[in-house]
Each structure stands twice: as C-alpha cells, then as structure tokens.
Amino acid sequence: MTSTTVDGKTISEIYLKRIQLTPKNTAYSAKIDGTYKSVTWETVHAQILGIYHSYRKLGIQAGDRVAILSNTRPEWLVADLANLCTGVITIPIYQSNTAEDVAYLIDHSEAKLVFAEDEAMIKKLETAFSLIKRSIPVVSFSDPVSTINGSAPILFSEFAVPSKNKTIDGEFRKNAESILPDNIASIVYTSGTTGQPKGVVLSHYNFLGELRAIIQNFSFSADDTTLAFLPFAHILGRVESLIPLMAGTNLAFAENINTLPQNLIEIKPTVLVSVPRIYEKIFAKIQSEVASKPKFNQLIFNWAVEIGRKVARLKSELQSIPIPLALKYKIADQLVFSKIREKFGGNIRITVSGGAPLSATLCEFYHAAGIKIIEGYGLTETTAAIAVNRPDDFSFGTVGKSMGNIEFRFAPDGEIQTRGDMVFREYYKNQAATAEVFTDDGWFCTGDIGEMTQRGFLKITDRKKELIKTSGGKYIAPQKLENLLKGSRFISQAMVHGDREKYVVALLTLNEAEIKKWGTTESIAYDSFESLTKNPQLQTLLEKEIETVNTQLANYETIKKFRILPRDFTIEAGELTPSMKLKRKVCTERYKDYIQSLY
What we know:
Layout: H1 11-21, E1 26-32, E2 35-40, H2 41-58, E3 65-69, H3 74-86, E4 89-93, H4 99-109, E5 113-116, H5 119-132, E6 138-140, E7 154-155, H6 156-159, H7 166-177, E8 184-190, E9 198-203, H8 204-218, E10 225-228, H9 235-247, E11 250-253, H10 260-267, E12 271-274, H11 276-291, H12 295-316, H13 323-342, E13 350-353, H14 360-368, E14 373-379, E15 384-388, E16 401-402, E17 407-410, E18 415-419, E19 426-427, H15 431-437, E20 444-452, E21 458-463, E22 468-469, E23 475-476, H16 478-485, E24 491-497, E25 504-510, H17 512-521, H18 529-533, H19 536-550, E26 559-564, H20 584-590, H21 592-596
Parallel strand pairs: 3-4, 3-5, 5-6, 6-7, 10-11, 12-13, 13-14, 25-26
Antiparallel strand pairs: 1-2, 8-9, 9-19, 14-15, 15-16, 17-18, 18-20, 20-21, 22-23, 24-25
C-alpha cells in the first residue's frame, strides 16, 4: 500500500481523512460529452454537503433509510457516500427489479426517499407507490419528462447543489465523526428460496473488514485503475466502489455494458472486477474471431493456448517453468496472448471473478493469456468475498484461501460455516430467518457444500440451497417461476434451470386433458398425444404462455427457452416427494440431455 491509503473505524472516518489528505486527487472518472473527465474529491465533497443540507430540509437523519434505484453511475456513488457519512442507511435496488419487488423493498425498509436513475425508473416507482398506497420523495439522476403522483421529481442537480458553506461543512463533519463501527451502513436485500427478499444488515465494521482484506491481498495502490460496470446494488460492485476511498485507486465508470470493450481500451485499467458472464462473452468473441481466420492462424492459436495452459498449471502448482517451455511461451505470447491482453486495454494486472462460479477451463485459458483471473467466494451476508485466490497463490477449480480473520468449518453434511469481521449480524425485521442461518455458537451457515484441499484452498462441491445463481451472479428463486408456469391450464409441472448458466430455461410437462381439448378446438389431427405435443401450433401456444409469465418477472429471471417432457413427473418415478415437491437433483440428472440442448 502507498501513502495515499487511509484507514479508520468507520467509512465516514475514512472519508474525512480522504478529503483531508488528497482533496485534489481524482475521486472518479466518467465520460462527459464523449471524453473521459476526472472529478476530484473536493468536487464530490461539495455535492455531498449539498445532499446533507437537502436531507436536513426534508427531516431525513441518521438511521433513516434511503433507496437507490439505478444502474451504476457516478451519482450512485455520490449518494451512497453521502448516506455513509450522515448515518443514513442505503437500500440498493436493482434497476431490473419488477415494480412489485421495488414496492416490497421500499415498504419493508420504510425508505423515506428514493434516488431514481431515469424516466423508466420513475414510471416503475409510480406503479410501486400505487401498490403500497403511499409515496415518498423521488430524486432523479437525469431530467425526467413525466411526473410521479402529479408532482415533478426533484432533480439530483438541485438536490446536490455544491456547497462550500463552512457552517454546513462543520456540522457534516461532526455528524460523520459521531458514527460508530456497529452502526448500519446498508441493508442489502437478497432473494430467499420462496422469492421473498431478505434484508442483509451490514455495518461499517463489516465493510471495513472486507475492504482491508481486499486491499492487502491484492496490493491496491494509487497506481491502480478499475473500470466499474457491475451493478452497485450487487455487493461485489458495491465493495469495488469503496476501494478508492480507502486505497486511493482510480475509479472509472464504463458507459454501459455494451461499450465495455471500447471503454477498456480507453481507460486501460489495471484491475477489472466482474462476474463470469463477461469473461464468457469475451472468450466467445475470441473463439468466433479465431474461427473466421485461415486454418494456419487457427493452428497457431491452438498451439499457443496449449503452451499457455501448461505454464498456467505449473504456476498453480508452484512449480518452476522449464526453459524450453518458457521459450515457447514467449513466442506464444508475442503471436497470440499480447493481442488478447490488448482487448482488456493492455495494462491489466489482475481480474477478479465473483458472484457465481467460473469454469476452471476458462480460468486456465485467461491465465494462459497472462490475464490473472482471481476467483473468490462470498455472499451478500459476508459483505462479498471471504475466500479468494491470490495472484501468486492460486488453484484452479477452487475459490482460494480465507481472507482477513475469516474462519471456516464444515457441518456433518459438508455445509460451509464461517465467522469473522465480514459476516452480517441479522436479516432486517426477520428474526426467524436470522436464527435459521446461525448456529447456537454463532457460525453462519452459507448453504453451500464444500471441502478444504490439502493446500488450504476452499472448494465448492455443491449447493445446499435451491436458489439458482446465473453466471451473471443473479439469484433466482425457482419455485416462484415454476408456480407461475403451473398457473397455465396447459402446464402440469415445470422445472426451471439456470444455475451457473447465462439464462433460465424450463422443462414442461403438459396437462393432457387440456391439451387434447385445445387440439380438438383448433381442429388439429393427431395420432397420439405424443404426436400432438410435437405440433408447431402447440409450440406457439406454449411460447405465448411463457411470454405471459415473463411479463411478471425481472429481465434476468425470464425464461428464454423450453422443452416438453414426454410424461409428467411422478412420485413413483422418484421425481416428486410424497408431498408433491420437485426433487430437483433427480430431475436435473435424469433430464440433463434435454437441459443441455437448450444451451
């Protein structure tokens, strides 16, 4: 760490030290009018004072909840820092959440104000407010066209009018100094197995435990630049947003996910924090480009990857690289790998993958190319990572070694249990759920099954909980989707799948009586029920049924493809429990060919 690194007992204390130590340094960079421009901590502080002043006018004070419904952007960061330094509790909400989800989060958290990104989010809030039959002040990050409940939203530019008033500054600093380590910093909602979100209560102490461990393990310094594009509503993105505050690193905002390739080249980051899906997409693009080249070029590429994988495996096993192999790798690097690194801007020091499992094969490929993908493991309840591979101490197929003061132990069934600074203390207003995940002696039960390798690396072997986690890091409650599908009169049973995959698919069994009735109504001739299930018109019918279900889901939950199974799930076949619950593992294994055909 360098002299620009600061520490303290709370995030607010660290913030005060940051603006005292490096007020003229860059707080973040963002593209403005087609060019990346830097914004200093001094400028950010003036905006935060404006927010603090506006909070006082509205009567919002320490302990109150304020929601942020937006994609990742500079205003998200500024609003969050204002909350963290005034004792106001941030409630992050994904912009992809449905209006029903938004209504629940605002109502359950008793939020007193919400920051909204744009017109679309304001319309979503209007629907949400109608559901909970009340409204709260809305501050818009952009200039909206419509009103909400008859009133125009407050513009962020007016709400955060920069202030240099010494009296306000003095009161703000006094307020920031009064915050304690155990004070709640944020309540981050995560889906439960029934789809009912649970509010994970995270303190300043939790966040600082995570930040210290990350900065120490990855040697972050003022020389590092990260490119932010993960949702700040995601705990991994949220932690990334706070690293510059402590380590003095440079934080640049990607314009959006589609411009990421261009922004990587423009910013040339040294660190990239992502979920597996991004690395999968880049890899797929590389494969596509290679496939379009002459056969000779393809042979060179494949040879280079083979050499690179050998080198990567030896490094992971802490073995020396034989000179002949090292010479071959140098040639492979010049011909192939240097060009791949250029796609990341050319300055990448490490890349971090979290939020969902990353294929060991894919991880090997990037290491072969000289791009150190560091995979870790954590949950919202652990303030992101509690185990991580290090740049020079890694093992493919594992999620690394423990971070900070984190301890692990394993229950008799192999479930990973943990305790340490980063572990949350409770679910908001949900004592029953809290008691369910903590042992009598205070260990948090993660819901994941794992083991420790001989070298001390944690390996995840199974998922105890049924939540689906896509390769984009999104949690999805399968029962919610399946129950919606079964709401169709044509569908008897449903099983959705998407764990570690890029999208959700469904296997359907049909209500034979209703399908035959439909066939007769549509004057469709068929020899058997099986032949009827293969009729193109039935496929169209079911597509419409799924479209109806998808309108009730957030984008990341929507079902992209489906297949019809030859018969219904039954208790006799071992696919259902006596109480008619789906045995997911049994069905996944039995119908794996059907599932694989959908990806």
